[in-house]
Amino acid sequence: MPRSKRHASKCRSTPTEPPVMPEGPSNVATRSEPVPDLLPQDEPDFPDDVDQCNEPNSRPFRRESNKYWTVDVKDENGKITKARLRVNDVYVLLGSKKIVLEWNELGQPIRESGGLLGQFLGHVASEFSNFPISYTKWSKIPGSNKEHVWKNIIQDKFDVSDESHKKYIMGSLGKKWRDNRSRLFTELYDPALSWEANLQKCPPSLPVEQWARFLQYRMEEKTQSMTEKNIVNRSKQNVPHTLGSMSIARKRYQMEMETGRTCTRAEMYAVSHKKKDGSYVNDEARQKIEELQIQSQLSSEDDAYTTVFGKEHPGRVRTVGQGVCPSQMFGSTSHAGGSSSSNYILKSEYDANMEMMKKKVEENDAEIKSLKSALAYMMQHMGGSMPSSFPNINQVEDLGSPAPTRTRGDFRPSSSNSHDPQRNDSSSRRD
Predict the structure, then answer these.
(1) Is pLDDT above 80 for 151?
(2) For the chain, which residues make up each domain, given as ranges?
(3) pLDDT higher than 90, residue 101
(4) Which of 54, 149, 268, 272 is most buried, most CB within 10 Å of its CB?
(5) Which residue has the higher pLDDT, 114 or 392?
(6) When comparing pLDDT for 37 and 306, which is higher?
(7) Per-residue H/E/C for the chain
(8) Which intervals of the chain are annotated as region Disordered (predicted)?
(9) Comparing C-alpha atoms, which of 316, 319, 296, 325 is closest to residue 308?
């Protein structure tokens, strides 16, 4: 009798009992347990998790292995070593070791540490004791829950303290939390079943109270109306991207390191909508890429995007990745409303030129006033008449404004000169 085939365990972490959820959704879980990591059946054993390395960051730009992430780990003394980690290994880092994250100029995580962070955040967001799904939206989850996760889970495992990086991480957790809720509802809810039957389909690790409140929220008329609108909007997106789980920021960094130059948004759109063999995902993607290339030659890249795709949506920028808003990318919040970055640049140049011209006019006015004063002094104390070829003093006065005008008679000789015998005698002889 043939022996039954023995399947390898797909879970690399020891399963634990689901944490007990205290009464009230605002309570914070005291800890997060590792989430089982599904691995291929024939995957070999994982190598040692830490490997000494004398040159941190001296790694290729592409991922070294799809079985683990090669990252830098810092101990409590500040010493950095290279480590090969899977997401479950992050939970069991010993000796106060923390994973060093690498960020680009836009505040997005890159390289393999960024990939490991994204996978880890997915596990954290799926832990219902951290972020209960019974809340209607991410902003309603108490700040105490988020601060607990940030201080006791994220900062405990990753070397990160920057506020802008915290904003990215919390935004990523919110997106993954929303996606996780949507996935749960799609997989478990059956509209053909009764309320009681759907309530019985609650996942084992999820408190029934959370599941009941979540179902109640999804059954509301307002929620269903919003869901239908989202389904319609999603159906209009016929051009799927091909990067998989790799973020646009990581892909762009990889391409820039390999080519030695900055990659444009148009290039990133083409790369993220082509297959491995270089073919387009569909005809619409090919048409959009060709239009984008043509428009980029006629105007700026940002104007080309507006022409091909329309206005940018508030809070995000196309083909840049998560965590980047229009004001951060273009330097003006008005761009999110549809004004192009080229218009913003032209307006900035116009304002700068106008300010420069204003200062120049003020300097000219001051110089004209000084010349007028000097000329008036000379005419008053030296006497004589102005050459016919020289503009009248009144004309010179008109070039500047505020000073009171002077007439030709104001520059007549003083009365003391009229009693000078020599001047009187010479005047009589001329008569």
Answers:
(1) yes
(2) 50-226, 248-339, 344-418
(3) yes
(4) 149
(5) 114
(6) 306
(7) CCCCCCCCCCCCCCCCCCCCCCCCCCCCCCCCCCCCCCCCCCCCCCCCCEECCCCCCCCCCCCCCCCCEEEEEECCCCCEEEEEECHHHHCCCCCCCEEECCECCCCCECHHHHHHHHHHHHHHHCCCCCCCCCCCCHHHCCHHHHHHHHHHHHHHHEECCCHHHHHHHHHHHHHHHHHHHHHHHHHHCCCCCCHHHHHCCCCCCCCHHHHHHHHHHHHCHHHHHHHHHHHHHHHCCCCCCCCCCCCHHHHHHHHHHHHCCCCCHHHHHHHCCECCCCCECCHHHHHHHHHHHHHHHHCCHHHHHHHHHCCCCCCCCCCCCCCCCHHHHHCCHHHHHCCCHHHHHHHHHHHHHHHHHHHHHHHHHHHHHHHHHHHHHHHHHHCCCCCCCCCCHHHHHHHCCCCCCCCHHHHCCCHHHHCCHHHHHHHHHHC
(8) 1-61, 386-431
(9) 296
273 vs 248: CA distance, rounded Å: 12
